[in-house]
Amino acid sequence: MPGLEGFNSAPPDELRPLLTECLAVPRWVDALLAGRPYADVDALLAASDRFADLTDDEVRTAISGHPRIGEKARTGGVSAKWSADEQSGVTASLADRLLAANAAYEDRFGHIYLVCATGLTGERMLADLAARMDNPPAAELRVVSRELAKIAALRLRKVLA
Fold first, then answer.
1. Are the CB atoms for 148 and 54 separated by under 8 Å?
2. Sign of the C-alpha dihedral, residues 114, 118, 120, 123?
3. Which of 58, 51, 56, 55 is nearest to 36 (CA)?
4. Quick check: 151 and 86 in contact, CB under 8 A?
5. Which catalytic reaction applies to this protein (predicted)?
């Protein structure tokens, strides 16, 4: 599917799995499909952001398919490759610190720590995780929702490439 033209003209059944790999929220996928055709990439990304105002349940569902920062995805497929690329700033020397930080975060919030990791070093992710530990749980879910929207936008660009 080359570019936006291919995205606009592809059968919905062909796009649905790819969009689900970007953000596993059926309402978001359906809204993006229904909004076609998009005039340009910016219009698609604006729609993605507009529809990514997720409920708490949608956030929890969407993060359930993401690996912990510093871990490999448990399943294969395109999102596993994307996740590995996005987390390329995580080095093996940080593995123990990330494991401990992830465990503390999960104990506090009841879900994995999620950040749009593209371009971030492992040290920067650890600092971000530590800073977010003081968030109230409801506020942290909103932060995670914004991070999911960033990840979805990055992955949409990959779908178009």
1. yes
2. positive
3. 51
4. yes
5. 5-hydroxy-2-oxo-4-ureido-2,5-dihydro-1H-imidazole-5-carboxylate + H(+) = (S)-allantoin + CO2
